[in-house]
């Protein structure tokens, strides 16, 4: 089966680092043959969603079971080198910080073939209820987030 993304088992990093492999599709490139800059943010989302799964729950569960949404309030990307059609990209995601209603992720995009750092970024998210009002993170998620941050800082 051919898939656009593939989860990678990483034994080289401590704590909660999630790595996902993505193959660049032609539609993701611009006229210069380079990945269009906005696609980096799409890949960050792929990494973030997989990191939540690695922590034992899904974003869908947060929405459906607990009425929580994770809204982006800040997103940044620093571009280091170009990615091109058919490159395999590693999206490396980790939880940087968590507070009662705020979650902060960090990302690295690396070319699989040579390990070159293509981009690095971060995003900050606020937790909202179904009325789009800020709310605290339910304890079952907060516990997983805190443990992920502690494991990563101890690594």
In short:
This protein is 26% helix and 36% strand.
Describe the model:
With 155 residues, the protein is α+β, with helices and mostly antiparallel strands. The protein has one domain: Roll (Thiol Ester Dehydrase, Chain A), CATH 3.10.129. It contains three helices and six strands. It has helices spanning 39-54, 59-66, 139-154, and strands at 5-8, 17-23, 69-79, 88-99, 102-111, 117-128. It has a six-stranded antiparallel beta sheet. β1 and β2 form a beta hairpin.
Task: Characterize the biggest β-sheet.
Answer: 6 strands, antiparallel
Number of strands: 6
Alpha carbon gap, first and last residue: 35 Å
What class would the helix/strand composition place it in?
alpha+beta
Keywords, separated by commas or semicolons:
155 residues; alpha+beta; Thiol Ester Dehydrase, Chain A; 6-stranded antiparallel sheet; disordered N terminus
